[in-house]
Amino acid sequence: QQQVKQSPQSLIVQKGGISIINCAYENTAFDYFPWYQQFPGKGPALLIAIRPDVSEKKEGRFTISFNKSAKQFSLHIMDSQPGDSATYFCAASMYGGATNKLIFGTGTLLAVQP
Amino acid sequence: KAGVTQTPRYLIKTRGQQVTLSCSPISGHRSVSWYQQTPGQGLQFLFEYFSETQRNKGNFPGRFSGRQFSNSRSEMNVSTLELGDSALYLCASSGGYQVNTEAFFGQGTRLTVV
User: What digits encode the pLDDT tens for the residues B40-90?
Assistant: First the structure.
């Protein structure tokens, strides 16, 4: 119940295309869902996050779509660029809980081809 | 504002030794969490400290321990190192009294056990 399932494991997209990464969770107590981007040799960097009171959040080319009833959320990268090539992790935690513990998905390695 | 600083960046230790890693959070942040990242297990939560108290602990053996100082800097210690402890150890900093504010990661300490 503490798991966050992420797919696909890897993704190849052409420059200018849309990259879509999906995550699913079981624990309905989760109510904070961030996405992180990680380049080789670096720590994860927070991209965008959403709480269940909204179904979509957009920041620049990055959009999170959230489906509370299906317990799924996804990251859409519009107009994907070679510089977006990185590993992306979804995560979940309990906003109302007494901890900042994040449960991470297994990661998606994105390659954007020029 | 300076980011999360982890030292050292790289460490090579021998099996059976112990190691101490350090994390300086973003100024004003009082929560520090530690994660282990490996290719096989992904990002796994080790523990979280808030105001010098351990607030949550992951499923790791007692060889993994940590502490937080009054200036919010944190250390984690691994005793009796095993080959399987080779990993990237990441520290995340979160701010204030409110839980589940944004978590910012350092660049990590790459530990190699030989």
Answer: 899 999 999 998 999 899 999 999 999 999 999 999 999 999 999 999 999
Return the DSSP state at B25: P
Name the residue of chain B whose CA is nearest to A39's CA.
B107
Helix, strand, or coil here: B84? helix
Give the closest-approach CA distance of B81 to chain A in angstroms: 23
Residue B37: Cβ-neighbour burial (10 angstroms; 0-12, 13-18, 19+): buried
Using the structure block, give the residue that is written with the tokens 């060889």: B63
Cβ atoms of A2 and A104 within 8 Å: the answer is no
Q: By the CB < 8 Å criterion, does A29 face chain B?
A: no
Q: Is the dihedral of CA A87, A93, A95, A99 positive or negative?
A: negative
* B22: three-class secondary structure by DSSP: strand
